[in-house]
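Quick illustration, no need to memorize.
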Amino acid sequence: MMYKRVLIALDLEGVNNVVGEPYQGLGKNTEQWRVAIGQAVLEVNAAAKALFDAGVEKVGLWDNHGGGGNVDTNALDSRIVQHCHGNNLSRMSFAKDAYDCICYFGYHTMEGTLGGVLAHTMSSKEIQYYKLNGRYIGEVDIDAYIAASMGMPSVFYCGGNLSCKQAMRAVENITTVVTKTELSRNKAEFRNNEELLEDIRVNIVKAVKNKVEARLLTFPSVMEKSFKRVEDAEKYLIRLQGFGLDASYLEDEILDYDAHTVVCSINDISEFIKAI
């Protein structure tokens, strides 16, 4: 058994040789961003070649860092099908019925992770945390749930050691490859690239041969989203209420209501995507 159509979801903070700069995200056209896109091409191309050599029929790349448009398309394996990012409301919609499984490259730890390189969740400027049913979640949790709703199990994850640990908590039986040892927000011990790329080649083929169950989100569920600024929380609450969702500020015994944090009841995957 082998998954024949494989989608690669690409972020950038988790690739090898990248730690960013203090007080900054990995913004486009910065020196560290240029390092990241070059490294990402090496990791993705190594994975794609190994997959095609093993008999995979289709490999897609979803470049989703900062709205997409990061990697040099001319540097990618020409056989890779490329997809635009889209916005959150259409997140991954292109993949429905087009792929059998999903693999993650360059993803990172969630906001607040001690030692996590460039740790954040969706927006380093705006968002303090997401919780789902009282449990912290990160970007791999979010995308794994959406992929599962389309019948795509999450089978492979390549990123820093702490983010790999979070991926294994998010998705049972996911195969992981560590790109670097994370020491702080802007410090890591990097791996030898030749060894890393060989690790990717070997383990991604193992991953697509490993039949796993897609981890479906159960409903009803409760999403809790906390913002760094109360103005952003207010905008988010108004947006959710405009969708007709049951949302309110988080009740608190001291504050009465936490003006930074919004809770929302979600009853299906479309509501989950709206609440991201």
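The first strand starts at residue 5 and ends at 10.
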